[in-house]
Write a structure and sequence with these properties.
heterodimer; A: 320 residues; mainly alpha; two-stranded antiparallel sheet; 14 helices; 1% strand; B: 293 residues; 2 domains; globular; MetI-like_sf (chain B)
């Protein structure tokens, strides 16, 4: 694009038509190339998103086709309602894992959501600039710490503490797992909520301040509602991680196939049971099918959660 | 100002505001202290015992003094392979969702796809890898299987961060670019990507860190063993990574110094994740400086 500008002074006054013709010819050659790349990349971007959907289709297909075989051997009611998981005797009741997964996630969110949203508000609204640019990278670093390390720390540091505080002799169980999960999802949820809050336009805040609101009122009545969609997305991601987290949970939950009767009883959730058992089973056994069914169930649960939260955030979007 | 007399409600609002500010700061301080304690615990336990020998030696099954050479190498190898596969597709998908996707049912469907995929637990990707590579193609537990499954895991996160980053670019910049007569792709390449690069790179950081320490996927797709050689670039050899090794050493190994190896492995894992974050940020500093000029 710079060529005609540079050409112009040199040929000024002598031949005005030549540069014009040159530039139009040049435009035609370059223009079609530009249009071509433009079109090409449009299809490339479309292809990428379709590839993503293909991966999802693969997940559903491969897990689903194995999972469905479960019900060749055992009944639907047995799988979902029986609490008896004794694969050696052909008993595949997954109810205890399902209930445990739900209670573990609920407990984790109970701890994590208030803390993370508080952190997000602190970073995005209250803290001065230097503090912001100090906390944000630290939370980012924390997201990257591998789940195995959290599990390992839970095992070597947290569980002894729980043991002394509660007087239990094992310490493994829902409480340990949910505390580890809380630490794990805290940075994710707070950073994404922080992004959502920071993305709220400044004029909303200024309008609210102009009406005489205090900062707390601005945060509670203007910023948080405006960022609700993003915060909901943050909590989805957190829940996703909590439900699907495997290795950290495996290390602290005790891995016993039973319903959690207290916060400290060793138990097992869907993910931890899958990873502990899948390497040891035959491809063509009911046991393997049942494990795939549990994985499929995880898929269905997360899909359901996402649909629920989509509904909530859409409703809020309408009101605002 | 002088004529303004605060009512009781005003005063209460001010007090609440002060109290809330205080408690937000207290919360922040507590969380930060906790994070530092956490990092200190991991690093102080493991880092002092680490030397070059530990980082490059082969793991031992029975004798004391095994290293983590091959597993550390596999970690990086699988991470890089998975990023090579997932970054182009993930960024492309994110850009499509932010820039091209029309507002209709089809886009809505795509969005549900991305959100569902990002909520798929990592263990399920592991099972997918197991089903595709070990069962369907029958090549067993391999580095290739691990890398591809890990790439699947990265995709939705990459797409999501890219979409958010691209959406955050102000419309004025786009309009200014279009006013110069650029095509959509030129605008994306020369305006939108440079502006949103910071957020995208932060996203890639998160993804890379997560992928480096991911273990559930790797256990099921790349296995619990290595080929027993250093610098094994063969895509079809088993590829236990460091994260998996930490779990393996802790739960199944019988060597006497398992505890020390686990401590050191945890420290190395965390150290590498911190280092990765720095590494990804260096190009950003240069870019920021260029933008400031």
């Amino acid at each position: 694009m710079s060529t005609p500008v540079h050409d112009l002074p040199a040929q000024k006054g002598t031949l005005l038509q030549t540069p014009v013709q040159q530039s139009s010819r040049w435009k035609r050659g370059r223009g079609s190339r530009v249009r071509f790349t433009n079109g090409l990349f449009k299809y490339y971007f479309l292809f990428s998103i379709l590839a993503l959907c293909l991966v999802l289709a693969l997940v559903i297909f491969f897990i689903g086709k194995t999972a469905i075989l479960t019900f060749k051997d055992i009944s639907l009611a047995q799988f979902f309602l029986s609490f008896d998981w004794t694969p050696e005797e052909g008993k595949f009741g997954a109810a205890s894992f399902i209930v445990n997964t739900i209670s573990l996630t609920a407990l984790t969110l109970l701890f994590a959501v208030p803390i993370s949203i508080g952190m997000a508000i602190l970073i995005a609204e209250i803290a001065p600039k230097w503090l912001k640019s100090f906390i944000r990278p630290i939370l980012d670093l924390l997201v990257g710490i591998p789940s195995v390390v959290y599990g390992y720390l839970g095992l070597t540091v947290l569980i002894p503490i729980i043991r002394t505080l509660s007087g239990e002799n094992l310490g493994d169980g829902l409480l340990a797992a949910s505390l580890v999960l809380t630490i794990m999802i805290l940075p994710t949820v707070s950073r994404i909520s922080d992004d959502a809050i920071s993305a709220v336009p400044k004029k909303y805040r200024e309008a609210a301040y102009a009406l005489g609101s205090t900062r707390l009122q601005v945060i509670m009545k203007v910023v948080l509602p405006a960022a609700a969609r993003g915060i909901a997305a943050a909590i989805i991601l957190g829940m996703t991680r909590a439900i699907g987290e495997t290795m950290a949970v495996v290390m602290v939950i005790g891995n016993t196939a039973q319903l959690a009767t207290s916060l400290f009883s060793p138990t097992s959730v869907l993910t931890s049971n899958i990873v502990m058992q899948i390497s040891n089973v035959e491809f063509d056994s009911t046991w393997n099918y049942a494990l795939h069914m549990m994985a499929f169930l995880l898929l269905v649960i997360s899909f359901g959660l996402i649909m629920i939260i989509r509904l909530i955030s859409r409703k809020r979007g309408d009101v605002a | 100002m002088s004529s303004f007399t605060p009512t009781r409600k005003n005063r209460r609002a001010l007090i609440w505001d002060k109290a809330a500010t205080g408690s937000f700061y207290a919360l922040g301080a507590a969380v930060l202290l906790f994070i530092f304690w956490l990092l200190y615990t991991i690093l102080s336990k493991g880092l002092p015992g680490i030397n070059l020998q530990f980082l490059t030696k082969l793991p031992e099954e029975i004798d004391v003094g095994g290293g983590i050479g091959p597993v550390l190498f596999n970690s990086f190898y699988i991470l890089i392979l998975s990023l090579i596969i997932s970054i182009p597709i993930g960024l492309g998908a994110g850009i499509y969702m932010a820039e091209y996707a029309p507002k209709n049912k089809f886009t809505e469907g795509l969005r549900i796809c991305v959100e569902t995929l990002s909520s798929v637990p990592s263990i399920v990707f592991g099972m997918l890898g197991l089903a595709i590579f070990a069962e369907y193609f029958d090549i067993g537990l391999t580095i290739l299987g691990g890398a591809v499954s890990l790439a699947f895991l990265n995709l939705p996160t990459l797409a999501r961060v890219t979409e958010e980053a691209v959406r955050a670019v102000p419309i004025e910049l786009r309009n200014a670019s279009y006013a110069l007569g650029t095509t959509k792709f030129q605008t994306i390449r020369t305006v939108i990507l440079p502006v949103s690069l910071h957020a995208i790179v932060t996203g890639i950081c998160l993804v890379a860190g997560r992928a480096f320490g991911e273990s559930a996927v790797i256990i099921l797709t790349a296995g619990l063993s290595t080929s027993g050689e250093m610098w094994d670039f063969n895509l079809f050899s088993p590829g236990e990574t460091l994260a998996v090794h930490l779990w393996y050493v802790h739960s199944e190994a019988i060597v006497e110094d398992a505890k020390q190896i686990a401590d050191k492995s945890a420290a190395v894992l965390v150290f590498v994740v911190l280092f990765l974050n720095l590494l990804f940020r260096v190009p950003l500093w240069f870019n920021n400086r260029k933008l400031k000029k």
